Amino acid sequence: MAAPIALAQSVQLTPHEALSGVFGSISLASWIFLLVPQLIENYRQGSAEGISLAFLIVWFIGDITNLAGAIWAGLVPTVIALAIYFCFADLVLISQCLYYNLVNARRERRRKRSAALSDASDEEEPLLSRRNSEARSMGLPGSQRRRSSAASRRRRESSLLEAGEEEGGMSDWVRNALSIVGICVVGAAGWAIAWRSGVWKPTPTDNADGPTEMALGAQILGYASAVCYLGARIPQIIKNYREKSCEGLSLLFFMLSLLGNLTYGAGIIFHSLEKEYILTTLPWLIGSLGTMVEDATIFVQFRLYGEPDPPSVAVI
Prior knowledge:
Layout lengths: L14 H19 L2 H10 L7 H21 L3 H48 L2 H12 L4 H26 L3 H26 L18 H28 L7 H21 L3 H15 L1 H15 L11
């Protein structure tokens, strides 16, 4: 995800370089908050069944190769620090998913064992005592039916209440769009503060010593990370298609990914269109802009496999 950036020098700020800085700052803000929505979604669900572990593992491998390539190429410390953060965040999300999968698998095994023991005890229980037990549990005629009806009514009222809250409030797409706007504002404001304080300076596109060539090994690692980023989402897309569901996935997670990749690619392109520069940053451009197509595919799946709108309820 990180592209090679030369050491900043004091040069005059141009509109293209300013846009490159703004887009780069927005991309940085997107990457920092990227995994937070999915972590929260897993915590709320108490499960990680919605997200593909293969997706996360391949993505983690991409971040590892990206970090190795950044270190090999001798990129600026901020790029290396961001690559380290990516790897750490990946490990946190993968650990959370493994934890929930392990806990839920154990709970399911206990439930099946308990159900098997219950069925075995029912088969061994004498018929007469079983009938008496069923009669006592039923109580007065119609009481069991009323309890079931009451429970059903409570569930129906709860679902109608949730539907009413969803209709009266904002949809997930609107709330997430507002979050995206907030990330853009934070990123742009961060760049403005860094520019005014002198922390951020435009990177010159012309080098008196000629273009600096990147080590072949660093280039290979860059292409390897791009391949991993491109292939990571394929298991998730296949999983969504097979299950015809995106339940358990955070929509904001993929929206932030799309925003980060889009602004990252824009930051590189606005910085320079020179052939040497584009060839040097090509692996990172492929890895960022190429995944946007896959993110768009997942958005389509969210629309196709999302829950249908609740039917309107007439008030009597």
